[in-house]
Amino acid sequence: MDGAQARVQEAISKMVNTLDTGCLRKMQVDMYNCSAKCCENPKYSLDEVQKCIEDCSLDVNRAQAYLQNEIESFQNRLQRCAMSCQDKLKDQMPVQPSDADVQRGRSSLEQCVVQCADSHVGLVPDLTKKMLETLKKKKY
After folding, report:
1. 31-70: per-residue pLDDT in tens?
2. Could you tell me the pTM of the whole model?
3. Which of 14, 58, 81, 137 has a C-alpha 20 to 30 A away from that of 49?
4. Could you tell me the residue ranges of all domains in the chain?
């Protein structure tokens, strides 16, 4: 099961790096350039500079919130799949399981959870593509 968990973590890490290099960094560069212009304007009061900087960061903050929400949703789906495996195991277990029943149950649970992990890892490329499109269109 540890291998499955590692594959999921690797897939999520790769997705986050793709989103970062594919879109977020450009947004951050734009935010910092915008913020620098706010600071360079001698006509702005301190409050106006702060408001300007806040306005510059709106897109990045919204994008990061969107990404966090999507990743949490993905992780929740994976967790629900694993919980479904546990429910199936409980339903299949006899009232007083033998040691052999428990061992078969563990093996069955592990296999089910690994299948969940693998199927969800398979969803990552399309999810990454969808999130990149959403970021580029600023539809978050």
Report:
1. 999 999 999 999 999 999 999 999 999 999 999 999 999 9
2. 0.84
3. 137
4. 2-137
The token pair at 110 is 């592990």
What single string gives the DSSP state of each residue in the chain?
-HHHHHHHHHHHHHHHHHHIIIIIHHHHHHHHHHHHHHHH-TTS-HHHHHHHHHHHHHHHHHHHHHHHHHHHHHHHHHHHHHHHHHHHHHHHS-SS--HHHHHHHHHHHHHHHHHHHHHHHHHHHHHHHHHHHHHHHT--
pLDDT digits (tens, 9 = 90+) for 95-131: 999 999 999 999 999 999 999 999 999 999 999 999 9
Nearest to 124 by CA among 67, 79, 74, 64: 74
- Compute the Cα dihedral for 38, 40, 41, 44 and give only its sign: positive
- The residue written with tokens 């994008």 in the block is 63
